[in-house]
Structure formats: structure tokens, C-alpha cells
Amino acid sequence: MAARGGATVPPGQHGTHGRDGRGSDARGPGSGAHAHGGDARGSGSGAHAHGPDARVAGYGAHGPDAGKPGTQAHAHQPAAPPARRGRPRSEAVERSIVDAVVRLLEEGVAISDLSIERIARTAGVGKATIYRRWEGKESLLVDVVRSMEPVDPPLPGTSVRDDLVALVEMLRRRGLAKRSSALLHNVFAQMQSYPRLWEMYHRIAVTPRRERMDAVLRRGVENGEIRDDVDFDLLGDMFVGPMLVRTVLRPESTPGPGSAERIVDTVLRGVRPPG
């Protein structure tokens, strides 16, 4: 969904609106393109044109010549009113696309049979609308899976132990959600057959969680709560491993809310500095 480049419009020069007055794909030779409505981002007067992925802020050209190719607003013209904020509409469009993918998966459509064209048709949008927000099917599917998983709340920050408990508790909830949701279970089973998709999910969703764990462990060393000779990679596995086993590999086991505290306290006892 990142913008893929474009020319900065100098102050006082304003781009054109598209034919529908919103300018979601507004372009004009010699003019800076403004995207309003679903693709508008931010606020202020500095506007940038970013091709099909326009993410802009500021003002558009108004008046009788608005919408004509090559038209630019001049500095001596009266200031135009602020453009309509487009974030809510953009979020609604993205939500409709994600919901469309979930609906198709619920209907039993396999990942291999999902196409951008089919997703766009189900969501009631154009393919270009999807490509403005995602690089392709894989990145869209990663966001779909993340939308179905429990949201990771902020860490309490009260102590290293409390933060570790929060991280392991999040893992418990995600594991149980995948177990109780036939859709999530099915999607994860299919994802493992697609190395690119599986790698992307780990890079976007799993790696940041692991980095949060590493940051908490390093803080524990700095605070003197954890020995400084520990292997961080191994220690992280010692915290998350037991919960993964109980939620993923042992379907007969249903770890309760107190499981995270027991795991964290057991591991911490073995890595505290002597004395």
C-alpha cells in the first residue's frame, strides 16, 4: 500500500480532479495529480502525486476549469477550501475488500483459486482499487489473516515479567483462535503450501512479535532481572514453546488464562542472576 513515487506539487499549484469530481485516479499532462476521497491521506497544504497509489494532502483546483487536463491553480487565486478527508472512505473500501476475501474463503474457495479479478468482483470494486492498496494477492491475504487473528494489545510496561506474561498470553489467545476457527485453521494449512505467502506472513506478522519479545528480554538483562550470558534466541523459544505445544500440537489440551503466568515464572526462575 506504500506509494510508489511521484512528483511533489509546489505550494500554490494544485492538481486536477478526475471526471467524477473525486480525483481518485486524477491525472493531467503538466499538472500535479491530486487523489481525493478513498485515497486521500493526511492533512495540510503540501500535496504529492504518487501515480496510481496517490496518497495526498491539501487542496485541489476548483472553479470552471477544474478537471481539465493541464489546468493548474495559480498562486494569485483565492485559497481553495480544504479537500474532503478521505481516510474513512478508504478504510471502508479496504474493509470491503478484506471482507470479500473472507467471504470467498468461507464459501470454500481455495487460495489457489482466488484471483484479484474475483476478489474485486465480490467486493464490488475495480482491480486497480485493490492494486493501489496491495502489491498482489499474497500481501492482501496476509492482511486478511491478520484481520481474523486477535489484536495484540499494548504491553503493560510495568515490569519485564508482566510484559512477558502479556506476550505469552497473546500467543495463547491466537493459538486457541486458530483451533476454534475452522476458517483460520484451513487458511493456515493452505498457506504452508505457498512458500512466498508463508514467508511474507512471518515477515509481516511473526517477526515483529519476536522482536517485541527480544526487546523485553534485553530490557530484563539491563535491569538485572535476567542473566547477561543467556542465548536470547533460545530463551525466547523457552517462553513461547510451551504455549505453542499446548495450543497447536496438543489439541486435547486447553491452557487456561493462568498458563502464561506459570510458564513465565518457571522460565524466569532459571535465568535470574545468582543471589
Could you explain how this protein is built, in words?
The protein is elongated. The chain has three domains: 1-81, no CATH class; 88-148, Tetracycline Repressor, domain 2; 160-271, Orthogonal Bundle (Tetracycline Repressor, domain 2). The chain has helices at 87-106, 116-123, 127-131, 137-148, 160-180, 182-191, 195-222, 232-249, 259-271; strands at 8-9, 47-48. The chain has nine helices and two strands; from the N terminus they run ββααααααααα. Helices cover 49% and strands 1% of the residues. The model is unreliable at 1-86 (pLDDT under 50). It is mostly helical and 275 residues long. The chain has a two-stranded antiparallel sheet. Helix 1 crosses helix 4, helix 5 (160-180) runs antiparallel to helix 7 (195-222) and helix 8 packs antiparallel against helix 9 (259-271).
